Amino acid sequence: MSLPNRLIFICAGHFGIILKKLIRICIFYNYEIIIFGSWFEIGRRVMIRDPEFGDMVRGR
After folding, report:
1. Distance of CA 37 to CAs 15, 21, 24, 45, 60, Å?
2. pLDDT at 1 over 50
3. Residue 53 pLDDT > 70, yes or no?
4. pLDDT surpasses 50 at 9
5. Is the confidence at residue 56, as pLDDT, over 60?
6. Distance CA 2, CA 45 (A)
7. Phi/psi of residue 43, each to 5°?
8. Mean pLDDT of all residues belonging to the chain
9. Cα-atom radius of gyration of the chain, to the nearest Å?
10. Nearest-CA neighbor of 57 among 29, 23, 20?
11. Residue 60 and residue 54 in contact, taking contact as beta carbons nearer than 8 Å
12. Is the pLDDT of residue 58 over 60?
């Protein structure tokens, strides 16, 4: 692979990581809004699916 291509891939990789973090933050705020609705149901599902998010909710 030529150097320019490799640089593009590296940039895309970093951008992907940043994008994933941004999406996570957006999801977090959406869940905060939904808390007023059915927090227990969603909270339980999220904690099962994503332990990291569960820790954030518990304030760790």
Report:
1. 33, 25, 20, 14, 23
2. yes
3. no
4. yes
5. no
6. 45
7. -60, -40
8. 67
9. 17
10. 29
11. no
12. no
Please give the DSSP secondary-structure letter assigned to residue 59: T
Q: 3-state class of 28 per DSSP?
A: helix
What one-character-per-residue DSSP string does 2-60 give?
-HHHHHHHHHHHHHHHHHHHHHHHHHHHHHHHHTTTTHHHHHHHHHHH-HHHHHHHHT-
Tokens of 59: 């304030």
**Amino acid at position 19, single letter:** L
Confidence class of residue 60 from pLDDT cuts 50, 70 and 90? very low
Q: Which residue has the tokens 């099962």?
A: 48
Phi first, then psi, for residue 49 (nearest 5°) are: -75, -40
Scan for tokens 């909270």, then name that residue: 43
* Number of residues that make up the chain: 60
Tell me the C-alpha distance between 41 and 55, whole Å: 16
Half-sphere exposure of 32 (CA within 13 A, CB side): 9
